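Exercise 7. Given the encoded structure of a 337-residue chain, write a plausible sequence.
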């Protein structure tokens, strides 16, 4: 052994042990210590910490939702290192945003604390994975996958449509570029829910719409109330701010006509009702909606659940969202001339 090599080992080995021990100690401190002394010690996180400290989740440690520093998750470790480099690098400060991978990790925490709401969401169409949405032959055969699809189905996707599915045409066959995304939900909890909202805030303040173009979440109360037209007549829209969230995706075409595209705005006998007056917030089920109002508010005196509407059968030509008395009573409201 060369004399210099032994001297090198004498310095290098203790230095390496010191660096590894310091790193583990630092990660351990950030993992277990009070967020007020860890997360909040960096000015980049001060606003998030301030929001969390008055939220309904303030009794939970940051790691219980976002994961801790002591992890073997490559994506999480990469994010931690990038934040440290950005903090000490002196470059332009970048907003801290969750990656799609981090969103799915957080969703597991939602499931653990809110099992019933999570189960309801899983039973709904909003839990559809990327394969169900982007490999649907009927949908893709009539309209090819395009960037705007990600506005509602995949708003947190870290990329563009050409990086998700191929080919971008109406002939197919279509495949996901990353098969691992097949079962990943396209509309996770954070698509609609804010987790750092003040606990005392109004219900609508706990809801949000994440705009992938702006890469920003907007509270439901800040979303605009749409103008929906039935011909030239403006349809009465519920004042419930939660409905503004629904209509971000269940919206009419650019001409604002009722029932176009995926619009479900209530009209006819249900005009003015909110989506949440009939639909369960997480399962989206409306199975119990009729009996909650009828027959007390029915003009017909018969069981409305057996009427010829889409509530009873999807094949009915009378859409429950827009059914009117005149649809069944020869153009007249019962008891009226």
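Solution.
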């Amino acid at each position: 052994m060369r004399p210099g090599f032994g001297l090198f080992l004498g310095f290098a080995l203790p230095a390496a042990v010191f660096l590894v021990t310091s790193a583990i100690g630092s990660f351990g401190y950030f993992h277990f210590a009070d967020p007020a002394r860890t997360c909040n010690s960096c000015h980049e996180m001060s606003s998030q910490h301030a929001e969390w400290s008055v939220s309904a989740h303030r009794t939970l440690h940051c790691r219980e939702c976002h994961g801790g520093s002591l992890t073997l998750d490559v994506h999480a470790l990469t994010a931690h290192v990038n934040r440290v480099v950005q903090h000490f690098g002196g470059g332009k400060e970048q907003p801290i945003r969750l990656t799609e991978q981090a969103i799915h990790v957080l969703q597991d925490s939602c499931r653990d604390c809110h099992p019933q709401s999570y189960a309801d969401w899983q039973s709904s169409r909003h839990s559809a994975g990327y394969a169900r949405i982007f490999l649907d032959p009927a949908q893709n055969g009539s309209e090819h996958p395009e960037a705007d699809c990600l506005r509602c189905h995949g708003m947190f996707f870290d990329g563009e449509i050409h990086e998700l599915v191929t080919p971008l045409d109406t002939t197919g066959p279509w495949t996901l570029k990353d098969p691992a995304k097949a079962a990943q939900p396209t509309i996770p909890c954070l698509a609609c829910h804010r987790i750092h909202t003040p606990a005392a805030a109004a219900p609508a303040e706990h809801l949000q719409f994440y705009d992938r173009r702006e890469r920003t979440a907007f509270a439901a109360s800040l979303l605009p109330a749409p103008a929906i037209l039935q011909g030239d007549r403006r349809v009465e829209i519920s004042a419930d701010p939660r409905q503004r969230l629904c209509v971000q995706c269940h919206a009419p075409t650019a001409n604002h006509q009722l029932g176009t595209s995926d619009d479900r705005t209530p009209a006819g006998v249900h005009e003015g009702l909110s989506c949440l007056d009939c639909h369960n917030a997480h399962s989206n089920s409306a199975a119990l909606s009729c009996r909650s109002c009828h027959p007390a508010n029915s003009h017909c005196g018969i069981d409305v659940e057996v009427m010829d509407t889409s509530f009873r059968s999807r094949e009915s030509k009378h859409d429950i969202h827009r059914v009117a008395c005149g649809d069944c009573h020869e153009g007249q409201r019962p008891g009226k001339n």
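Remark. Residues 3-32 form the longest helix (30 residues). Students should compare their own answers with the one above.
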